[in-house]
Amino acid sequence: MSKTVGVPKEIKDHEYRVALLPSAAYHLIQRGHKVLVQNGAGIGAGYPDADYAHAGATLVPNATDVFGSADLVVKVKEPQASEIPLLRKGQILFTYLHLAASKPLTESLLASGAACIAYETIEVNRRLPLLEPMSEIAGRMSVLVGGYYLAKHNKGSGVLLGGVPGVLPGRVVVLGGGVSGINAARMATGLGADVTILEVDVERMRFLDITLHTAHTLYSSEDHLMEQLPQVDLLIGAVLVPGAKAPKLISREMLRRMRPGSVFVDIAIDQGGCAVTSKPTTHHDPIYVEEGVIHYCVANMPGAYARTATQALTNVTHRFVELLADFTLDEAIQRQPALKSGINILGGRVTHRAVAEAHGFAFNPL
Ligand SMILES: NC(=O)c1ccc[n+]([C@@H]2O[C@H](COP(=O)([O-])OP(=O)(O)OC[C@H]3O[C@@H](n4cnc5c(N)ncnc54)[C@H](O)[C@@H]3O)[C@@H](O)[C@H]2O)c1
After folding, report:
1. What is the pTM of this model?
2. What mean pLDDT do residues 200-209 have?
3. Nearest residue (CA) to ligand 1, atom 6
4. Is residue 364 one of the residues assigned to a domain?
């Protein structure tokens, strides 16, 4: 079966990622499909139009051309207001959706008649493989930005995380040792910082202890955190309780125990943040100071490194894209049952339990 796969240019504010690499477009075309790419779709991630043209894709000037002809639309972020009317019945939309966070978007997508498959709910062996690369990037990045804001001219305390011969390294505490936490710890130990990870999952702590030779693990409790904070230079929030808001583990009193100019990077801000003082910021205005502690709470951290993020995302999405292009949705699910968990909306009905529960819609299991 030959399909038309459409790749629009992302239009969400400061979104530079693209959903398909030129090499993936080439492979789809080799499989007999047509690939439509909107002009400039890959430019923000360093993939010029010429690369797509060279791969055999057809470049089109605007989003209407892509949505109008595509059987399968592959995107990065949820459709924006101007894109929603372009979706149509029978079309497949494959992208990050985060529908539980938005009732209006869920309602518009229900009305569109399109089959909406969310990257973030595709579950394989109790993991979310299409979400993990973004946590990996945010985790690694948290140490880069944390170290940057510790510099004196950035309002920081003036501590160099790695120290130097004769001077002890900076101290990093990571709250939560999951995907983003272990990546933060890996970067921080690599810099030579003194790293402690607070976790509640004992099995996970065993794994962290064996894998990250120089990082310490500590059971996560209020008392332990209170003890740590006076010596912490960089505190990283990387907790997640699946399906719930981030637990507020850090109070104002706790922040007051930290030295002025210390830095708190709250990766968990997209789930509400893990300090009472956390509020979302943007790449253009990333920090603010509360209780003398610099807060960095950017909700879409991977957007800063659009090229790496594009490559990491497409590494995990391209096989699903091929499957959705090669087969009907039913056949694709038979070949890869994990796809089923990604289908949030089908035939004007909500087919994902968490999305239905979040907005009080009827849940229609597939
Ligand atoms: N800001 C961004 O740009 C960005 C990017 C990617 C991910 N995230 C977010 O980062 C957060 C973490 O994601 P993840 O993929 O690392 O999650 P994860 O599930 O892999 O890890 C979370 C860890 O937190 C631990 N935990 C739960 N409660 C705890 C507590 N009270 N104390 C200590 N540890 C606790 C869990 O045991 C788990 O190991 C999520 O909210 C995710 O959405 C944000």
Report:
1. 0.91
2. 97
3. 135
4. no
